[in-house]
Amino acid sequence: MAVEDRYYDPVDLETSADSLDHDHPDVDKYAALAADLREDVAGEVRFDEYAQVLYATDGSVYQARPAGVVCPRDTADVRAAVETAARHDVPVMPRGTGSSLAGQGVGPGCVVLDMTRHMDSILAVDTDAEQATVQPGVVQDHLDIELADKHLKFAPDPASSNRSTIGPSTRKSSGKTTWKPICTARPGGSSKRIEKRSTRSTPVSSARSRGITCTR
User: Rounded to two decimals, what is the model's pTM?
Assistant: First the structure.
């Protein structure tokens, strides 16, 4: 059974606003952008005031209303959303669970890409190559549980690992190891230096002093 099947899955649940069967008209200012996104994207597109308020906050004290929200179903949706927003000269901001304490999860007038709704799968773990392929909406603790029986662990260690997602951990130094080489202890007092392999990879340490690269 895939690791994501063991956890709460909100995909088929309605929000409180949806369950009331109310209309959610798009905010006039972004109606044209919303219409184009619905033509180009398979995932949900929400540009109503309720969605704006819902995504205007994260774990910090900052508040900033976005233009709207897109919940991409796959990489094709992400690409289409970015291209459509660019045509309208509107910035795009990928978002995880909004656990940031410094405002990285909010942005005024942007298109929020909520990666947690659909793009939250662990696609593959190659123990020999020490590499995991995951989607950006995977919660870090879920990945670590999957890696535990292989004696591997994702290196960044934020306090919010039970709710923070892999995507934000790899684009900002939330785990304090994303942008720096790390060392892991080895029996006998020696250490192994693990460095970031490319701009698209993040180092991962392990209980047995080996490394794994987690690729988005």
Answer: 0.70
Give strand ranges (E) for the chain: 44-46, 68-71, 92-95, 111-114, 122-126, 131-134, 182-185, 191-194, 201-204, 212-215
Choose the most confident range, by mean pLDDT, from 18-22, 96-100, 117-121, 181-185: 117-121
Q: Is residue 8 part of a domain?
A: no
Alpha-carbon distance 200 to 76, whole Å? 18
**pLDDT tens sequence across 99-110:** 877 888 899 999
Other Cβ atoms within 10 Å of 47 Cβ, number: 25
Number of domains making up the chain: 2
150 within some domain = yes
Q: Is 50 helix (H, G, I), strand (E, B) or coil?
A: helix
Contact 73, 42 (CB under 8 A): yes
Domain membership of residue 164 as a residue range: 122-215
Give the chain's length.
Answer: 216
So what's the pLDDT on residue 216? 40
24 in a domain, yes or no?
A: yes
Compute, in degrees rounded to 10, the torsion defined by CA atoms 142, 146, 150, 155.
Answer: -20
